[in-house]
Specification:
The complex is a heterotrimer of chains A (507), B (506) and C (98).
Chain A: H1 18-24, E1 25-36, E2 73-74, H2 75-87, E3 91-92, E4 99-102, E5 112-115, E6 122-131, E7 134-147, E8 151-155, E9 167-171, E10 178-184, H3 194-212, E11 224-234, E12 244-249, H4 252-271, E13 279-284, E14 289-295, E15 305-306, H5 317-324, H6 331-342, H7 346-354, H8 358-366, H9 371-389, H10 400-411, H11 417-428, H12 434-441, H13 449-462, H14 464-471, H15 478-488, H16 495-506
Parallel strand pairs in A: 12-13
Antiparallel strand pairs in A: 1-10, 1-11, 3-6, 4-5, 4-15, 6-7, 7-10, 8-9, 11-12, 13-14
Helix pairs in contact in A: 3-4, 8-9, 8-10, 10-11, 11-12, 13-15, 13-16, 15-16
Chain B: H1 9-18, H2 23-41, E1 44-47, H3 49-64, E2 76-80, H4 107-114, E3 118-123, H5 157-164, E4 170-175, H6 181-187, E5 190-193, E6 213-218, H7 221-231, H8 249-255, E7 262-266, H9 276-291, E8 295-299, H10 307-322, H11 343-354, H12 357-370, H13 376-397, E9 402-406, H14 422-426, H15 433-438, E10 441-449, E11 456-463, H16 468-486, H17 492-495
Parallel strand pairs in B: 2-3, 2-4, 7-8, 7-9
Antiparallel strand pairs in B: 1-3, 4-6, 5-6, 5-10, 9-11, 10-11
Helix pairs in contact in B: 2-3, 7-8, 8-16, 10-12, 10-13
Chain C: H1 5-14, H2 21-44, E1 62-63, H3 73-77, E2 83-84, E3 87-91
Antiparallel strand pairs in C: 2-3
Classes of the chains: A alpha+beta (507), B alpha/beta (506), C mainly alpha (98).
Chain lengths: 507, 506, 98
C-alpha cells in the first residue's frame, strides 16, 4: 500500500454509506463519560458548586491554585464515586491514591489536574443495556475521581471560538468541581447497532446517576459529558484499528449521530486505501459532522505521579457494604423482574418501555390495579390522548392512582368501558378524581331493575321482528333490542344485565 | 545582656509579662537593629516596620486591659518569605513573585498572629527554597553575621542570619532537605525540623510537598521549643497534618536531661569530606552528652548514602509539578503579553525570565525524572530508596532513642565558592536529607567554633516521628554543658562585637 | 546515555521554559553530571522494594461536604496581570485542551 496520494483524500471524498461500511468492517467503540457530581462544595475545597454564578465568585486559594494552598478531599465525593462504581458492578479498590496529571493549559490553575492514574477507586465493572430489542454487555474498565477545569471565553474571533480569537477570559468557578470519569473497555461485537448501543449506555448512565442522586446529569449544562472513541477493523480481523476520539458529544441523539458519522468517514478513508489519523475530533451539532482537532500522533507525556499533598483513600469494607445497600436496581434487571411479575410478553414489555409507560404502570399496579388493566389504560386510551395532544404520557392528565381508581369502578360494575372513557374526559378536564367525576356527571351504570325492566318492555313492543327471530332461535337478534334499551338509558346500563332481561322477557 | 535585642525570647516574654518591657520597645529595638545591620547582612526582603509597631502596640493594649495572652505574646519574630502573609509581599526570593501579596495567611502565620507574636518582616531565601547558601535569591544573597564573606546557609539563610545578627529573637523556617538545620549549623543558632505532618504546610509555598516541613529557628533551645509549641498541631487544611497531640517540647527543653538516654552516632555520617574542626567539635559534643549520663553507641545506617541521590530525584520531580502553577496567567510576572504572543508563548517567556538558574535546573531535572519511560528508573526507584532509608531509621530507633551526626560536613563556605558547582552545593545537605526522606524529626544545635576557621559547627539530633521532644531534651542538655564550658552562649561572641565584619575570628 | 541539547530543549518545552542557547548548553552538561550521580539509586535498590510516596501512614483524610465563603472577587483578581469583566484576561490560546 502506498500513501503518496492519500493526503489528497478529504473527508468529503472519503465517505462510505453506513450499511455498506457495516458489510466491510467491524466496529470497536469506547466511551469516556465525565459525570459532574452534585456535591454542595468542590472536590478539594469548600467553595460552592452552583451553576451560573457570577465569574470568579466561587473561588478560593485552593481552586485558584495559589502558591501555598493545599487540597483536602470532599468525603461526599468519595462516597458518590464508590456508589457509582457499585452501580456499575465494579470492584472497589481497598487502597488507592490520587495522582497528578501534568500539562499546561490556562483553564487549569495548577497546571496539573488532580486525578487518579494507575489506582482508580472503582475498576472492572460491567453493565447491561438494551438497544433495539437486543441486550449488550458493556465492560467498564474504571471509574475514577478527578476535578473539573475553569471555563474560557474567547474574545475577538468571529464566533467566540478558539480559532482566530485575540485573547481569552478565564472564569474559575468550575475549577475543582468534582468529576467521576467512567471509562469503558473496548466494546466489540455490537455490529451495526454500535451507535445505538453507545446511546443506550449513556442513557443508562444518565438514568442511573439520577437514581443514585449523585449528579444533576444535565447534558446541556455539561454535568454529563461524553467522549466517544471509535475504530474500524476489516471483517474477520482481530487487530484493532486506529481510533479517533470525538469530543463535545453532549446529547443522546448526537452520540448516535456522531458515531454513525465517524464510522462512515473512517470506512471511506480505509476503503480508499487511506490511513485513519489518530486524533481528537469535535462534533458539530449543527452541521452533523465531526472535524479534526488536536493530533494525538505524538502522545502527551502527562508525567503522572502520586499526589503528595493527599493521603491514600482506603474505603472501609463495612462502609462499602453499607453503600451497596443504597444502590438502585439496574434498568435491565428491573425490566426482567417486572416482565416476570406482571406476566407480560417481551413484545408487550418493549412497547411499554417504548411508550415510557414503565414507571406509570408500576405506580398504577402499586395503587391496586391489575397489571393487564394498567397496561390497557396507559397503552390504549391514555396513550391515544397523549399522542393527540403531543404530550408525554406522564402528562396525559391522569395520575397512576386515578387510573387505578377508575379500574376499581369498572370492576365494581359502576362503570362500563364507554362510561369509563367519559370519566377520563372528566378527570383530564380537571373535574376531580374518577369517583367525583362519576358523581358530578351522573355517569354511574343504572342498576335500578324497575326502570330497566320498563325500558326492556318498551323495546320489545317496538321490535316485533326481532322478537320473532329470537323465538326462532336466533339469539343474535337480541342485539337490536339491547341497543334500543342502551340508547334509552343513554348508555348508563350494564349491557350484560340488559341482555339477560331481554332474553328472559322474550324467552 | 540587658538590651532587648540580645535577650532570648523566653526572657523577653518574662519581661513583657512582668510589665518591665513593652512589646513596642522590643519591636522598636529589633527594627533599629535591622536598620543598622541589615544593610550588611541582608537577612530581610521586606520589613513591615509600621505594621509591626502598630501590632506591638495592640498587644501592649490587650495586655494592659488584663487580657490573658499566650506565652510569647508581644515577642517579635521574622518569617521566611515562603509563607503567605496577607498585607505583605510573599516572593519566595523569586522575580516570578515579585510584589505578590497573597489574599490569605499561612496557617503558621495565622497561629503566630493568634499567639500575639509581632511579625517584623519576611526573610531572604534561596529562590523557592532551592539552595544551601541563599545565593539563589533573586534579590541578592544574605551574608553570614560571623563573617560577611561567608554564606549563611540555605535556603533559610535569612531566618538564621537575622537571629545571629540579633535582628530578631525568633524566626520561622521551612526545611525540605536541610533548609532550617544547615543555616542554623553555619550561623551558630538552633533550628528544628519537626516530624513531617507536625506543623501545617498550608500557606507555605511548596517546593517538594512530601518533604517540606515548617519549623522554628531561635538562638536558644527553649526559645525554639516555645515557638514550636505555637506553630505545631493538627490543621484540617493540610491533609498530611497529623491529628495527634504535640509532644511536650517545652517541658523537654526545660528538663534537658539525658541521663539513661541511648544516643546512636551514625557511622556513615563522618569521615571523608567532613572538615576536621567539624568532626572535632562533634566528638566533643558527644563526649559532653556521655558525661551528662547518656549512653553512646555506634549505629550503622547503610542506606543513608542513597538519601542524597534519591532526594535529587524526588525533590525535583515534585518541584517540576508544584512550580507549574507559575504561568503568568493569574498572578506573578508576565512577559511578552504584547498581542504578538500566544498564552503558551507568554508562559514560556515568563518562566524563562522569572525563574533563576537553579530553579530551571531542578524543574527540568524533575520533568525528566517523571517523563514516560524514565519514571521507574528515576522517580520509582527513588521512592524505593526512601523505603530503605526509613527501614534504616526504624532499625536504629529500635535500639537507640536518638541518632546524632554533624549537621553539615563543613562550616560556612565563602560566598561564590559553589555557585557554579551544583554538585558541591548539594553536598551541604548530606547529613540533613535522610530525615526529610523518612519524615522523622531532626534538629541542629550549636556545637562550638571550628578551630581552623573560627566558624560555627552544628550538631544534628534525629528522633523518631512524633518524638520531637527528644530533640529538645538532647539539645538543652548539650546547650547547658557547652555554655558552662564556654562561660557564655556561643553567640555572645558576636553580640560583643561593635560591628559585624568581614573576616573570620572575633 | 548522555543528554543532548535536543533532549533538554524537549524537556524545557514540556516544562514551558524559554531557554537561551547558552542556558541550554550549560544545563545539558550539568544535568548529565547530576543524572550520572543519581544512577546509583536505580542500580542499588532491590526491585522488589515497596516504594514510599508518603513518610506518613495516614489514610482517608476527608472534609465534610460543607460550603464555606469563597474569596471576595476583588481579592481573587487583585494580583492578576490583566482583568476584564471580572475574568482573568490571558493571551490567545492556540490549541484546544488535551
Amino acid at each position: 500500500m502506498t500513501t503518496t496520494a492519500l493526503s489528497a483524500i478529504s473527508p468529503e471524498d472519503a465517505w462510505m454509506d453506513y450499511d455498506e461500511a457495516m458489510d466491510l468492517f467491524d466496529v470497536v467503540i469506547g466511551l469516556e463519560v465525565h459525570v459532574e457530581l452534585n456535591t454542595a462544595s468542590k472536590m478539594f475545597c469548600s467553595c460552592p458548586t452552583d451553576f451560573g454564578a457570577e465569574p470568579n465568585t466561587q473561588t478560593c486559594p485552593v481552586c485558584l491554585g495559589l502558591p501555598g494552598s493545599l487540597p483536602v478531599v470532599n468525603g461526599k465525593a468519595v462516597e458518590s464515586a464508590i456508589r457509582i462504581g457499585l452501580a456499575l458492578n465494579c470492584s472497589i479498590s481497598p487502597h488507592c491514591r490520587f495522582a497528578r496529571k501534568n500539562y499546561f493549559y490556562p483553564d487549569m490553575t495548577k497546571n496539573f489536574q488532580t486525578s487518579q492514574y494507575d489506582e482508580p477507586i472503582c475498576f472492572d465493572g460491567e453493565v447491561e443495556v438494551e438497544a433495539d430489542g437486543e441486550r449488550f454487555t458493556i465492560p467498564v474498565e474504571r471509574a475514577h475521581m478527578e476535578e473539573d477545569a475553569g471555563k474560557s471565553l474567547h474574545v475577538g474571533g468571529a464566533t467566540g471560538r478558539i480559532q482566530g480569537a485575540e485573547y481569552s477570559l478565564m472564569d474559575y468557578n468550575r475549577a475543582g468541581v468534582p468529576l467521576v470519569e467512567i471509562v469503558t473497555k473496548p466494546v466489540l461485537g455490537t455490529g451495526a447497532k454500535a451507535p445505538q448501543v453507545a446511546r443506550a449506555y449513556v442513557a443508562f448512565l444518565r438514568d442511573m446517576m439520577r437514581a443514585l442522586g449523585v449528579s444533576d446529569v444535565r447534558m446541556e449544562q455539561g454535568s454529563l459529558r461524553c467522549d466517544a472513541n471509535v475504530s474500524l477493523m476489516p471483517k474477520g480481523s482481530t487487530t484493532l484499528g486506529t481510533r479517533t476520539e470525538t469530543k463535545n458529544v453532549n446529547s443522546l441523539r448526537s452520540i448516535e449521530r456522531a458515531l454513525r458519522y465517524e464510522i462512515s468517514r473512517q470506512a471511506g478513508i480505509l476503503a480508499a486505501g487511506g490511513r485513519v489519523k489518530q486524533e481528537t475530533r469535535h462534533w458539530h451539532e449543527d452541521g452533523g459532522r465531526t472535524s479534526s482537532g488536536r493530533s494525538k500522533e505524538q502522545a502527551e507525556d502527562y508525567r503522572y505521579f502520586p499526589e503528595p499533598d493527599l493521603v491514600p483513600v482506603a474505603p472501609d469494607p463495612a462502609w462499602v457494604e453499607r453503600l451497596r445497600e443504597t444502590i438502585p436496581e439496574s434498568p435491565v434487571a428491573r425490566v426482567a423482574r417486572l416482565t416476570e411479575a406482571w406476566g407480560f410478553t417481551e413484545l408487550e414489555m418493549r412497547d411499554v418501555i417504548g411508550a415510557d409507560a414503565l414507571d406509570l404502570i408500576e405506580a398504577t399496579v402499586e395503587a391496586g390495579c391489575s397489571p393487564q388493566a394498567a397496561r390497557k389504560w396507559w397503552m390504549g386510551e391514555l396513550a391515544r390522548r397523549a399522542n393527540a395532544a403531543d404530550l408525554p404520557l406522564a402528562e396525559a392528565g391522569m395520575t397512576p392512582a386515578q387510573v387505578a381508581e377508575l379500574q376499581g369502578l369498572v370492576e365494581a360494575g359502576t362503570l362500563n368501558d364507554k362510561l369509563a372513557r367519559q370519566v377520563i374526559d372528566g378527570v383530564i378536564a380537571g373535574e376531580g378524581d374518577p369517583a367525583q367525576v362519576v358523581a358530578h356527571r351522573g355517569l354511574a351504570v343504572v342498576s335500578d331493575t324497575g326502570a330497566l325492566q320498563a325500558a326492556v318492555e318498551r323495546a320489545i313492543a317496538a321490535n316485533p321482528g326481532a322478537v320473532a327471530s329470537i323465538k326462532a332461535g336466533r339469539q343474535a337478534a337480541a342485539g337490536a333490542i339491547i341497543g334500543a334499551v342502551m340508547k334509552e338509558m343513554r348508555g348508563q346500563a350494564d349491557a350484560a344485565t340488559v341482555r339477560e332481561l331481554v332474553l328472559a322477557a322474550v324467552g | 545582656m540587658s538590651e532587648p535585642i540580645f535577650a532570648s525570647a523566653a526572657d523577653l516574654a518574662r519581661d513583657l509579662a512582668a510589665g518591665t518591657l513593652s512589646s513596642e520597645e522590643a519591636t522598636r529595638a529589633c527594627l533599629e537593629r535591622i536598620e543598622s545591620s541589615d544593610g550588611d547582612v541582608h537577612a530581610f526582603l521586606h520589613v513591615r516596620a509600621d505594621e509591626a509597631l502598630s501590632d506591638a502596640r495592640a498587644i501592649d493594649q490587650r495586655r494592659a486591659s488584663g487580657e490573658a495572652l499566650g506565652p510569647l505574646a508581644g515577642v517579635p519574630i521574622a518569617v521566611k518569605d515562603a509563607f503567605c502573609t496577607t498585607g505583605s509581599p510573599t516572593t519566595c526570593g523569586s522575580r516570578m513573585l515579585e510584589g505578590w501579596v497573597p489574599p490569605y495567611d499561612a496557617t503558621v502565620v495565622r497561629r503566630l498572629k493568634e499567639a500575639g507574636l509581632v511579625i517584623l518582616g519576611k526573610t531572604n531565601m534561596d529562590e523557592f527554597a532551592m539552595g544551601s547558601s541563599t545565593e539563589n535569591s533573586a534579590f541578592g544573597p544574605t551574608r553570614n553575621p560571623w563573617d560577611l564573606t561567608r554564606i549563611p546557609g540555605g535556603s533559610g539563610g535569612g531566618s538564621a542570619a537575622c537571629l545571629a545578627a540579633f535582628e530578631a529573637p525568633l524566626a520561622v523556617g521551612s526545611d525540605t532537605g536541610g533548609s532550617i538545620r544547615q543555616p542554623a549549623s553555619v550561623t551558630g543558632t538552633v533550628g528544628v525540623k519537626p516530624t513531617y505532618g507536625g506543623v501545617s504546610r498550608y500557606g507555605l509555598v511548596a517546593m517538594a510537598s512530601s518533604l517540606d516541613q515548617p519549623g522554628p529557628c531561635a538562638r536558644t533551645v527553649l526559645d525554639a521549643a516555645l515557638l514550636h509549641a505555637v506553630m505545631a498541631g493538627h490543621d484540617p487544611s493540610d491533609s498530611t497534618s497529623i491529628d495527634a497531640p504535640v509532644p511536650d517540647v517545652v517541658a523537654a527543653a526545660r528538663a534537658g536531661d539525658v541521663a539513661g538516654m541511648r544516643i546512636g552516632v551514625v557511622t556513615e555520617l563522618s569521615g571523608e569530606g567532613y572538615a576536621p574542626g567539624v568532626e572535632q567539635r562533634f566528638q566533643e559534643a558527644v563526649a559532653a552528652l556521655a558525661a551528662a549520663g547518656a549512653e553512646i553507641v555506634e549505629v550503622s545506617c547503610p542506606h543513608f548514602s542513597l538519601a542524597l541521590p534519591a532526594y535529587y530525584l524526588i525533590m525535583p520531580s515534585e518541584v517540576s509539578s508544584n512550580l507549574a502553577r507559575f504561568d503568568a496567567m493569574r498572578y506573578g510576572l508576565r512577559v511578552g503579553d504584547d498581542g504578538s504572543h500566544s498564552a503558551e508563548q507568554v508562559m514560556r517567556l515568563s518562566r524563562g525570565a522569572g525563574f533563576g538558574a537553579e530553579v530551571k535546573r531542578r524543574v527540568i531535572l524533575g520533568t525528566y525524572a517523571l517523563s514516560s519511560g524514565y519514571y521507574d528508573a528515576y522517580y520509582g526507584s527513588a521512592q524505593k530508596a526512601r523505603t530503605l532509608i526509613i527501614e534504616d531509621f526504624d532499625r536504629a530507633f529500635a535500639t537507640v532513642d536518638v541518632l546524632v551526626s554533624p549537621s553539615t560536613p563543613t562550616t560556612a563556605f565563602p560566598l561564590g565558592e559553589r555557585t557554579n558547582d551544583p554538585m558541591a552545593m548539594y553536598q551541604a545537605d548530606l547529613c540533613t536529607i535522610p530525615s526529610n526522606m523518612a519524615g522523622n524529626s531532626s534538629a541542629s544545635f550549636p556545637a562550638g567554633l571550628a578551630p581552623e576557621d573560627g566558624l560555627p559547627v552544628g550538631f544534628q539530633v534525629m528522633a523518631p516521628p512524633l518524638c520531637d521532644d527528644r530533640l529538645y531534651r538532647v539539645g538543652a542538655a548539650l546547650e547547658r554543658v557547652l555554655t558552662e564550658r564556654w562561660g557564655a552562649p556561643l553567640l555572645d561572641a558576636l553580640a560583643g562585637r561593635d560591628r559585624l565584619s568581614e573576616g573570620g575570628r572575633a | 546515555m548522555p543528554l543532548t541539547p535536543n533532549d533538554v530543549a524537549r524537556l524545557a518545552d514540556l516544562a514551558r521554559i524559554e531557554l537561551s542557547d547558552e542556558e541550554l548548553a550549560g544545563l545539558t552538561g550539568q544535568l548529565d553530571l547530576i543524572l550520572e550521580s543519581v544512577q546509583v539509586v536505580a542500580s542499588s535498590v532491590p526491585p522488589e522494594t515497596t516504594p514510599t510516596s508518603h513518610a506518613l501512614s495516614l489514610t482517608n483524610v476527608f472534609r465534610p461536604d460543607e460550603v464555606r465563603p469563597s474569596l471576595p472577587v476583588e481579592d481573587v483578581l487583585a494580583m492578576a496581570p490583566a482583568v476584564e469583566d471580572d475574568r482573568f484576561r490571558v493571551p490567545r490560546i492556540l490549541e484546544e485542551a488535551a
